[in-house]
Structure formats: structure tokens, C-alpha cells
């Protein structure tokens, strides 16, 4: 018999992911595991809200004003209906409103962070690679924007965008205007990080080799530099998601965010705040707890990801 070596079957990508250092640090962090579980549960609950929610709270045909202000787990005095988290002033099931409202909050947060990330990465790559007056204009604009609180910038952009939108389309475009406002207020941190990383990467040998073989600047930035600057960007995106969700809730709470026909968690908190001192505490408490759990869990996941991807902490 020959002593030929037995061929080893290559490991699947799933197996390699399970054996990676990132997954090892994840298993060693109880905070990260609990936070991930909370995020997964809340996100899936929002995605499958039509299947989980007892009723569609924003369908007028399903509302019964006689169920208004029903306390949690208590039969209504008039109809006898009982609700897990009670009802609001219009008889809407609070549990159902949270599930549907969380869909709006998550959609706005994810879309705003994606828009800010694309804009920030693009401007950061251009300013770091091109340099000169292009870099000066982009980064000075970023410095000026950093002097103002992001929530004020978002309110200003929201007001301007809503003002130029025709009146008959304002409610339909409110969510997209909200995404634009939050995204334009959060692109700066992506641009600054990407610019710094690009300044380091563009002087390395592989970029110089790409220039020698005639690659265009756009191809060098996208195919060579971009993959090497994404690690810090992913960390910033995770943390920014929690901030974007809070920013959306803040704007909606102030009445300049999601419209009443598409209420988010911030809108539900604003509605509940008006009934807090009259004894209907559940209308405010449950949406506020949901928002807190969602933002805190995403933020803790971002902190863990930042530490896990930092080679100095390994």
C-alpha cells in the first residue's frame, strides 16, 4: 500500500466562522450574548408584527373606543376584553402598537445609518486619497457640522426638507425626510475615520503597485483601499444605529418626526407622556422600556465589537 496522505476535506465557511477569534470572544462575553439575544428577539418581533400582534392598531376598522384606557391584564368594564399591556386613549392595543411602531423605528435607524455610512465613506475616501482643496473643503465642512449638536442639525434639515415638500405629500414623505435628516447629521464620523485610514493605506505598496499597472483612482479606492478600512466603519455603524434610533425617537417625541398615521416608538412615548399624570402609566412605560432595551442592546453590541476588533486588546 502506498503512504499517500489522506486528503483533508476543506472546512465550510460556517465552520470557519464558528472557529474564528471573533466568535470565540462573543461566546466569552455574557453581555454580548444577552444583548444579541435581545436584539434578535426585538427585530424578529418587528419584522413579523402582522403575525404576532393581536390586531392592527392603525386600522380604524379594528378599533373600539370603548376599550380605551384599559389597564394591562384587566378586563374592560364595558366590553370585557383584556389586553396584555393595556390600551391607549383610542382603544388600541399597546402591545400591537409597540410591535408596529418598532418597525418604523428600526427602518428609519437602519436606513439613516446606511445613508450616512455610504455618504461618509465616499467623502472620506475622496478626501483622503485626492487631498488638496478637495480634502480641505470636505473636512472643514465636517468640522463646522461638528460644532452643532447632531439633533439640532437633524431638526434643521428636517424642517428645510419638509418645507420644500408639497403639502399633499408631506405625510407620505415624512419617513424619508426623517431618514435624510438623521443621515446627513451623522456622516461626519464615518468620513473622518475613513479619511484617516485612507491616508495610511494610500502610501502602502499594494496601492503603489495598483497605480503602476494603470488602475484608475476610483478602482483603487473601491477595490483596494475600501476593504482595508471597513473594520472601524462597521463598529461605528453599530454604535450609530443605537444613536439613530434614539434620534428618531427624540424627533418624533418633539413632534417633528414620524407622522401620526405611521407612529414610531418616539411617537408612542409622546402620546403616553400626555396621560402619565392622569394614572394611565402603561401607555408610556411599555414603549419607553422597549426603546431602552433596543438602544441599550445595540449599543452594548457595538462596544463589544469595538473591543473584539481592536488588535491592541487581544
UniProtKB/TrEMBL annotation:
Decide whether keyword Transmembrane helix is in the record.
Answer: yes
Q: Give me the segments passing through the membrane.
A: 31-53, 104-130, 142-161, 173-194, 225-247, 281-305
> Is Transmembrane among this UniProt entry's keywords?
yes
Taxonomic superkingdom: Bacteria
Q: Which PROSITE patterns match?
A: ABC_TM1
**Membrane topology of the entry:** Multi-pass membrane protein
The listed locations are: Cell membrane
ABC transmembrane type-1 domain mapped to chain residues: 102-302
Q: What GO terms in the biological process aspect are recorded for it?
A: transmembrane transport
Please give the GO cellular component terms listed in this UniProt entry: plasma membrane
Assigned keywords, A-Z: Cell membrane, Membrane, Transmembrane, Transmembrane helix, Transport
Q: Which InterPro entries match?
A: BP-dependent_transpt_permease, MetI-like, MetI-like_sf, OppC_N
Matches recorded under Pfam families? BPD_transp_1, OppC_N
Query: Which family does the entry's similarity section mention?
Result: Belongs to the binding-protein-dependent transport system permease family.
Listed name of the protein: ABC transporter permease
Q: Which organism is it from?
A: Marivita geojedonensis
Amino acid at each position: 500500500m502506498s503512504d499517500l496522505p489522506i486528503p483533508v476535506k476543506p472546512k465550510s465557511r460556517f465552520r470557519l466562522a464558528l472557529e474564528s477569534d471573533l466568535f470565540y470572544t462573543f461566546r466569552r462575553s455574557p453581555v454580548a450574548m444577552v444583548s444579541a439575544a435581545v436584539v434578535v428577539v426585538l427585530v424578529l418581533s418587528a419584522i413579523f408584527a402582522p403575525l404576532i400582534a393581536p390586531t392592527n392598531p392603525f386600522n380604524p376598522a379594528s378599533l373600539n373606543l370603548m376599550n380605551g384606557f384599559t389597564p394591562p391584564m384587566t378586563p374592560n368594564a364595558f366590553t370585557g376584553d383584556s389586553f396584555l399591556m393595556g390600551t391607549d386613549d383610542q382603544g388600541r392595543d399597546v402591545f400591537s402598537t409597540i410591535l408596529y411602531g418598532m418597525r418604523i423605528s428600526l427602518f428609519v435607524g437602519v436606513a439613516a445609518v446606511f445613508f450616512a455610512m455610504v455618504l461618509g465613506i465616499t467623502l472620506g475616501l475622496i478626501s483622503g486619497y485626492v487631498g488638496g482643496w478637495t480634502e480641505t473643503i470636505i473636512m472643514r465642512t465636517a468640522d463646522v457640522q461638528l460644532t452643532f449638536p447632531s439633533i439640532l442639525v437633524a431638526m434643521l434639515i428636517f424642517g428645510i426638507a419638509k418645507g420644500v415638500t408639497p403639502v399633499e405629500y408631506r405625510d407620505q414623505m415624512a419617513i424619508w425626510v426623517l431618514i435624510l435628516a438623521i443621515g446627513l447629521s451623522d456622516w461626519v464620523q464615518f468620513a473622518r475615520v475613513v479619511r484617516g485610514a485612507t491616508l495610511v493605506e494610500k502610501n502602502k505598496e499594494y496601492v503603489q503597485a495598483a497605480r503602476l499597472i494603470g488602475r484608475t483612482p476610483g478602482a483603487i479606492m473601491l477595490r483596494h483601499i475600501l476593504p482595508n478600512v471597513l473594520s472601524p466603519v462597521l463598529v461605528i455603524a453599530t454604535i450609530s444605529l443605537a444613536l439613530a434610533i434614539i434620534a428618531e425617537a427624540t424627533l418624533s417625541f418633539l413632534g417633528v418626526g414620524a407622522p401620526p398615521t405611521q407612529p414610531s416608538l418616539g411617537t408612542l412615548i409622546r402620546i403616553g407622556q400626555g396621560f402619565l399624570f392622569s394614572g394611565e402609566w402603561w401607555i408610556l412605560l411599555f414603549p419607553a422600556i422597549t426603546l431602552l432595551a433596543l438602544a441599550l442592546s445595540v449599543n452594548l453590541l457595538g462596544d463589544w465589537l469595538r473591543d473584539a476588533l481592536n488588535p491592541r486588546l487581544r
